[in-house]
Amino acid sequence: MSAGLVILIVLLIAFVGFFLGRTRAYKSAGGDIRKLHSRPNYYGLTVAIYAAVPALLFTILWLLLQPLYIESQVSKMIDAVDIPDGGSLDLVMTDVRRISDGLDVAVNAGTMTEDQIATMRADLSDLRARLGEVGIAVASDVQQNVLDAAREYRKLSTKLQIAMSVIVIGLSLAGAFISMMRIQPDYRARNTSEHAIKALLILSSFVAILTTLGIISSLLFETVHFFQLYRASDFFFNLTWNPQFRGGSDLGILPLLWGTLYVSFVALIFAVPIGLLAAIYLSEYASKNVRSFAKPAIEVLAGIPTIVYGLFALITVGPLLRDYFAQPLGMGNSSSSVLTAGIVLGVMLIPFVSSLSDDVINAVPQAMRDGSYGLGATKSETIKQVILPAALPGVVGAVLLAASRAIGETMIVVMGAGAAAKLSLNPFEAMTTITVKIVSQLTGDTEFASPETLVAFALGLSLFVVTLGLNILALYIVRKYREQYE
Amino acid sequence: MYDAPNLEKTVDQKEFKITADNVQVFYGDTHAIKDVSVQIEDNTVTAFIGPSGCGKSTFLRCLNRMNDTIDICRVEGNILLDGENIYDKKVDPVQLRAKVGMVFQKPNPFPKSIYDNIAYGPRIHGLTRNKADLDIIVEKSLRRGAIWDEVKDRLDQPGTGLSGGQQQRLCIARAIATEPEVLLMDEPCSALDPIATAQVEELIDELRQDYSVVIVTHSMQQAARVSQKTAFFHLGNLVEYGETSQIFTNPIDPRTESYITGRIG
Amino acid sequence: MTDLSTSGAAAPRGPHSSSLLVQDANTRKRNAAESRFRLYGVIAIAIAILALFALLGSILYNGSSSFRQAFVVLDVYLDPAKLDKDGTRDLEKIAKVSTFGYAPLIAAAFETKFEDPEIGVEGLSAKNAAKLISKEGPAELRRYVLANPDMIGETVQFEFLASGRIDGYYKGRVTMETAKLDKNVSPEQLQLADQLKEAGVLAIKFNTGFLTRADASENRPEAAGLGVAILGSFYMMIVVLCLALPIGVAASIYLEEFAPKNWITDIIEVNISNLAAVPSIVFGILGLAIFINFAGLPQSAPIVGGLVLTLMTLPTIIIATRASLKAVPPSIRDAALGIGASKMQAVFHHVLPLAAPGILTGTIIGLAQALGETAPLLLIGMVAFVRDFPSAPPEGFFDPAAALPVQVYNWTQRSDPAFVERASGAIIVLMVFLLIMNAIAIVLRRRFERRW
């Protein structure tokens, strides 16, 4: 019985329980609902909650723990000799899982029977080919021990699956039954169900914390793993980035960091003045007509997915810069370049900067403007000498937020900046960024446990720390700024 | 080369600094000021009094075209400053406001140093040639704003750090620094405590020697204390205008009398 | 001039003694600065709007042609001698004939066409003429025969996709000159294509296949479609909607209505605002590490994509929901509590329905963001080449699928320039979806916006 079906059954029990609970409450009051403490629906709801919530929480817990348990049991069966040179236990376990899945698929497709599997011997039957037929690719020829492990894996998962189904459905029925028994006219069904609902609400709000924990733990765990395989000092201070398939890679973050900062810098140079001036113009100068057209137009820029900007960089801006600037100036022949990515990234940031600046400028009190106009200042003098200095912390916060955006942006740089890790000053040269390398290292074909793949997690952690730091700093500055005028 | 017009002006000035003639103000569809005509004299403190929403502040803001900054506001009629219509198309409000300074209800020092607050006006209007000149103006303005002794040791500190009364005197000093001819004050003491109010009132009385001061106030006592002329506004109309002593002791219009005796307001 | 010279601090009347009606030099200078500054603003706005138009224009320019496609209509004789030598019509036997076995049928169809004196180019054999047809053609023919084995021996009129180069010829991508250098197409083939077009055999039509077909391999761009990607994106949106909306609304209700002011609440709030700013690629890493490696969910599956996008969308939905809950005035809550409703009843019976339009608007905008998100999906394996449509939900959520924005990225990585057109076309499709979603959000907001 699959987990999905079990969940469906639990939901069904809860659904039926709702109506049974309602009817029972109705009957217990002798048909006079005024005698009930709560409205009949609440009695039904209580039953449904008792039937569903514990059972579903248990299911989730079980599903999380089951693979860990099976893994620990099965991995005992793998001897050191079964691990090929240069591989690891993890890789063998991946194979075990794949073979086990493959056997399932083969049985379902009817190309193998359970008996065949039970008696199969790795050296006699060409398991790899047969699994290939049903679309499961296994890395190497299957060892006997691995096959045994896979069989054990299958057996254990089937057994545990059945155990889970029985326990979960039993739990659900028991919950429904207990809560049914408690129904009587003065049972405070509303309070009970409201408490349960409140617990669910609290649980939902913890998803945010769980997500953060998930991000931090997944990044940290694999990063530690990476630093066991690769020296941390090399990662942070090595000036070359040169991953090799066969080990001995140079995985220094500095060239990537340089590319990231360079592209972000170009983007900010482009976006900050334009965004700021656009916000100033729209809030202080523009006529109603201009505003009603220009403001939505700029907002549209914000709603466009980054993949669109990426394509724009790839097919339009890149070739344009190459043909009309880089080649005539003799500065390069690459259509992907720091400038390409930077400009397009800058366009993406314009609405971001402009809407943040707009907020910041509007937070400056009108009295400040009046004071300046009252002294005979012109609008631009007021803006440049009173509003902007007053709004400076807010603007700085906005720029930091934009910088954090630029550093974390992926698609535009993947499609616009290039893939060569270089420490160069020439903006027409292709360079690469942290995010680009995260994508390329994790979508490549290298094995997962190698430093070449794991480095992506270290890069991800660096990226996370930098952007988080910028954000917290920016939010702090902006909040301080707002408090000043509240 | 400006001698001739200046001569003409001096003749005018003796009489009236500002002449308003049939002024109408509209906020969108609301007729906020109805047909107001008034003459404001030089070297005089003129008080505008009246109940809330009577249009006294609106009218005050017409005198240096601060209403221009509000999109929906429309002004009709003539307001002459030294015989020149300030609503003439050729008039640059920026130039006008340098001549007609303004102090607001709430003290609104810029988030800059005390020195820069005062120096702001002279700088934008290009009144000085060098730092030394500017220093002189700043000191002179602060002295005339009766706040020099309190701030002379901390000119480089932010103006926002001062107390409410000090801030308001700083704002007055800031307005004086641009060497205006008329000083408009929109309820300058409403945000201040009694002691600060007394200081500012004293200051207003001193300023009369050099400027024409127009002050909007909702405090009749204040009007009686500081002004020589008083105008009473009610529902957008100028009800009565005359010598302060006469308005408060012997008002002609029954509405004025009701207000002064506290029956409306 | 006089202004400056008389600007001594001594004379109170000094600086402004000139007439108001004449602008002095200083004012003129200042006004010039004013208009310069204004001009900078106009330039900034112009650049922003220009960038928008350039962006949209470039996509439309490159992509709109992907909705048109050259088709060739041929009468194909389904030769029993080639397809079913025994004449038994046994499906298994027929299935043994591979796609290659069908190519000669198309060549034969051209042979027949060449009987027409108007058609035929010197030195172009029927076999080479058959290369006008997409490599997908024989496969389609085979599928048709396997579905209708009775038609063997008949002549069937069949509408084939023209090959990418021929298609490109009618879209200006391929010319006679480039064809000379191209080993995939010859000028003779293009001449023949012109003749066929003249004869009405080759026609340019609306390309429904672009929306319904699955992706195709590197050398048959003309057959590549968005079907799997659209379905995959749709599945992901269902997952996002089913998870992010209830969780987001529940979390917002708790935080806005019930949460006590304490450090735990503070931590949750800080968490939410920070999650909104975490780079999307980091969510991809989370998905890879937690959902795929740890929880063992399959790669490239819409369920994983949906889960990752849910986590990314949650902050948006929570922020929007809290804003609209906050906008419901406390008097409504007081009124409900005053007549004896519990706090929970007040919230669910009164506050939530009033906040619903705002919540819905926020949700749609969150979904639109999720629909365009690319980077995290790359990491959870959605770049894989998927030719099979995922099955119906719920199993379909676990089948490999593509996603619209990832399909775009995928196509840009291929060398044939025809894929640039496809990628831009896919963007147009994506943008149309986004436009529809945003339009719905705007209509909802206009329609139900309430001012208290």
TrEMBL record, chain A:
GO biological process, one term: phosphate ion transport
Annotated family: Belongs to the binding-protein-dependent transport system permease family. CysTW subfamily.
Species per Swiss-Prot/TrEMBL record: Thalassovita gelatinovora (Thalassobius gelatinovorus)
GO CC field: plasma membrane
Membrane-topology descriptor: Multi-pass membrane protein
TM stretches of this protein: 6-21, 42-65, 160-178, 199-221, 256-280, 300-321, 341-365, 386-407, 454-478
A Pfam cross-reference name: BPD_transp_1
Protein name: Phosphate transport system permease protein
Automatic annotation (TrEMBL), chain B:
Gene Ontology cellular component list: plasma membrane
Domain ABC transporter, chain residue ranges per copy: 18-260
Intracellular or extracellular location(s): Cell inner membrane
Any one of the GO BP annotations: phosphate ion transmembrane transport
Membrane topology: Peripheral membrane protein
Keywords, comma-separated and alphabetical: ATP-binding, Cell membrane, Hydrolase, Membrane, Nucleotide-binding, Phosphate transport, Translocase, Transport
Molecular function GO terms recorded: ATP binding; ATP hydrolysis activity; phosphate transmembrane transporter activity
EC number: 3.6.3.27
Annotated TM spans: none
SMART domains xref list: AAA
Function: Part of the ABC transporter complex PstSACB involved in phosphate import. Responsible for energy coupling to the transport system.
Protein name: Phosphate import ATP-binding protein PstB
Gene name of the encoded protein: pstB
TrEMBL record, chain C:
Main subcellular location of this protein, as a coarse class: membrane
Cited InterPro entries: DUF3333, MetI-like, MetI-like_sf, Phosphate_PstA
Record flagged with keyword Transmembrane helix: yes
Annotated region described as Disordered, given as residue ranges: 1-23
UniProt-annotated location(s): Cell inner membrane; Cell membrane
UniProt keyword terms in alphabetical order: Cell membrane, Membrane, Transmembrane, Transmembrane helix, Transport
Record-level Gene Ontology MF annotations: phosphate transmembrane transporter activity
Segments passing through the bilayer: 37-61, 234-255, 275-297, 303-325, 346-368, 423-444
Biological processes annotated in GO: phosphate ion transmembrane transport
Membrane topology of the entry: Multi-pass membrane protein
Keyword Transmembrane helix in annotation: yes
GO CC terms, sorted: plasma membrane
Domain called ABC transmembrane type-1: residue spans: 230-441
UniProt xrefs under SUPFAM superfamilies: MetI-like
Sequence similarity: Belongs to the binding-protein-dependent transport system permease family. CysTW subfamily.
NCBIfam families recorded: 3a0107s02c
UniProt-recorded name of the protein: Phosphate transport system permease protein PstA
Species: Thalassovita gelatinovora (Thalassobius gelatinovorus)
Gene behind this protein: pstA
